[in-house]
Amino acid sequence: MDAEEAANKAMKKLVEEASQLKYMPNVPLKIYLRSANSLFLQANRYKEEDDLLNAYKFYMRYATLALEKLPQNSDYKKPEYKSGRLELVKTSNLVLKEIEELKPKLKRYFLQVAEEEAAEKTRNLNVQVEYQSQTPQVIPVSNTEWDLAEQLKNLHLGTSSKTITMEEQPHLTVQYPGISTRNQSDGYTYTAREIPSPALPPKIMHDAPKIPPKPRGYDLNLHSEKADNKVEPPPEFAAYTEGGEGLRKVCLSDSIYDVFIKIAANNTAKNLETCGILFGVLTRNVFYVTTLIIPKQTATSDTCTMTNEEELIEYQEQKGLIMLGWIHTHPSQTCFMSSMDLHTHSSYQVISPEAIAIVCSPKHQPKFGIFRLTNPPGLQTVLQCTQRGFHPHDSSSPIEKEISHNGHVEMKRMDLEIIDLR
Ligand SMILES: [Zn+2]
């Protein structure tokens, strides 16, 4: 396969992968419009960061959702969605333009990767041929210090005077790597430069595993200086769903429980729930929860309902924030996801697969939990469920998963802006 062919194949694979989108017809159009908005924001962000591969993927997903899937939605033609439809068409035009602009750049990138791989292969083959053509050098054993009989004799006598070190061998005056020296004056640790040992035969690389093309953050000039001071990109995914879908990392302030419990204190004292919505940004493939918005709401001891959703969405769009989940209290109950919580959360997880639900239960242990619906079967089970109020969900596998220690969320010291719209 020549480089051109390999590049075409890689491009085709990307298009196939990028246009794959699990569409669930029973999800309300309103939720999908938000999901589309989130895809568009993320695509723009990747483009800003020169992560063209992910930018392309997310623009493609937007186009697939907006132009192929959503027109099938039963709500699509309803008059109340007229402005939503117009917005979709307008954004789709922008997205298609972006896709067309990205295509030749990605094609060029794949071509360069293929050419690099082909060149590498040729280099390795040359090394192999060169090595095989060399006459092996036979070193007479008796002339070296590696004299087995001498060694055994020393061992037998119990002396250690003949321990052979590299320094004693006249032909091998190589300084070996891995030696760090701490400088006394500045305390900085200097590490010796790596010099390969000449005693080893050249490695034959033709069986070496192929280096996959950089999934993100690559620059289109493969020979730029950047290779010298490499910054390791964060891993693409922090965890995977039950169905194998990658979840990008979500970073969250480690003070969120304390902050939210304070905000909720008045309601908690009256045995009323409080809820807040988590928003954030995407930076180098990692989500950061930067903003906690407390919407206007009505509550009971075990439910909480937002009443000014439009105001919230307006604020989010104005700031270009991505919806990343929600947080609520259980003023008297334990830390778990009620069936109503699961239903609420299903919408968030359609908008963004990384969306999380945080539950704070100040009167119980554990008092804090982070949840997501399993996918599958949790997300699908709840989206297909038509029951309202509190009800059990039948499933042989768990519907939700607590992920505060083993998921895609990282709690760390970081800022959290609070916007109280009440
Ligand atoms: Zn249900």
TrEMBL record:
<feature type="domain" description="MPN">
    <location>
        <begin position="250"/>
        <end position="379"/>
    </location>
</feature>
<dbReference type="GO" id="GO:0006508">
    <property type="term" value="P:proteolysis"/>
</dbReference>
<comment type="similarity">
    <text>Belongs to the peptidase M67C family.</text>
</comment>
<keyword id="KW-0645">Protease</keyword>
<keyword id="KW-0833">Ubl conjugation pathway</keyword>
<dbReference type="InterPro" id="IPR015063">
    <property type="entry name" value="USP8_dimer"/>
</dbReference>
<keyword id="KW-0378">Hydrolase</keyword>
<keyword id="KW-0479">Metal-binding</keyword>
<protein>
    <submittedName>
        <fullName>3565_t:CDS:1</fullName>
    </submittedName>
</protein>
<keyword id="KW-0862">Zinc</keyword>
<dbReference type="GO" id="GO:0070536">
    <property type="term" value="P:protein K63-linked deubiquitination"/>
</dbReference>
<dbReference type="InterPro" id="IPR044098">
    <property type="entry name" value="STAMBP/STALP-like_MPN"/>
</dbReference>
<dbReference type="Pfam" id="PF08969">
    <property type="entry name" value="USP8_dimer"/>
</dbReference>
<dbReference type="InterPro" id="IPR000555">
    <property type="entry name" value="JAMM/MPN+_dom"/>
</dbReference>
<dbReference type="InterPro" id="IPR037518">
    <property type="entry name" value="MPN"/>
</dbReference>
<dbReference type="GO" id="GO:0005768">
    <property type="term" value="C:endosome"/>
</dbReference>
<dbReference type="GO" id="GO:0061578">
    <property type="term" value="F:K63-linked deubiquitinase activity"/>
</dbReference>
<dbReference type="GO" id="GO:0016020">
    <property type="term" value="C:membrane"/>
</dbReference>
<dbReference type="Pfam" id="PF01398">
    <property type="entry name" value="JAB"/>
</dbReference>
<dbReference type="GO" id="GO:0140492">
    <property type="term" value="F:metal-dependent deubiquitinase activity"/>
</dbReference>
<keyword id="KW-0482">Metalloprotease</keyword>
<dbReference type="GO" id="GO:0046872">
    <property type="term" value="F:metal ion binding"/>
</dbReference>
